[in-house]
Amino acid sequence: MGGVRGVSVKLGQLLFVLWAVATILFFIFRLMPGDPLTAFIEPTFTQAERDELSRQFGLDLPLFQQYLLYLLNLLQLNLGKSFFYRQDVATLVWEVFPNTIVLTLAALIVAYVIGIVLGATLAWKRNSVLEKIALPVVLMLRAAPEFWLGMVLLAVFSFSLGWLPSGGTLEAGTERGSFLTHMFNRDFLAHLFLPAATLALYLVGLPVLLMRSTMLEVLNEDFVTLARMQGFSERTIMLRHAARNALLPVATAFTLGIGYSVGGNVVIETVFSWPGLGRLLVKAVQAHDYPLAQGAFMLIAVVTIAMNGLAELLYRLLDPRVDHVG
Known about the structure:
mainly alpha
């Protein structure tokens, strides 16, 4: 019963957070200056035509009625119709969401594989020359703005050397094909390389520092001392005992990183003209496209909240001693 009650409480908390996010999104966009219909209203429009356009998008209703209609549509998974594109928001969002997920997962996998190996090595080789060189570099990458890293990689590998394309997902005129064909297309992978590398360089600092810190704690545990007394090699102790037990916080950080990166790819996608959720969101805000911006933000919120819940579940599975249920 306790487990069911805990799950119910957690689910209730997640739903409350989603409602709060949805409410904030609804009101914050309507407090922004500017009329969302400005882009569609031409000087030749009569007042009757302007009123009809407002009626079509439901902007003639009182604000509270718009809010209730907005919540009702969300419950039905209806994200509304874009002011700018005149298409369903759900269609527009789901068209670009796979690009964001591919970019995020590619960068995270590279960053965390390198981070885990390098972090464990730095802990094992503490106070070595490698640590004295690697730590400042990692901290510098973590502190550097994403757009600056992207511009440096663009300047070197795209504009100077001409090895890689500077933006987009495919060369002009290339057919997209099916999803799997598109994802494994050499042209697509070439376009993916620079934005994924930029994001990976920015993200790699967290797993390196986290793995190093956790490893240093684990190396002082009694079971590591016991393994040494039993005559295990240093390599075996490092891989099978220390590193294995230090992976718990890194694994949960990876899960959280998926949610945060999906929402934080705006800069990367803008710099590299990557047609993802972040770039679509920027366009929606610039055009005062309330439904599209709200839909993009809601999808980001859902992914972030889901990844937080998954991280908590993963932590409990990997370490049953930790009780997260209040």
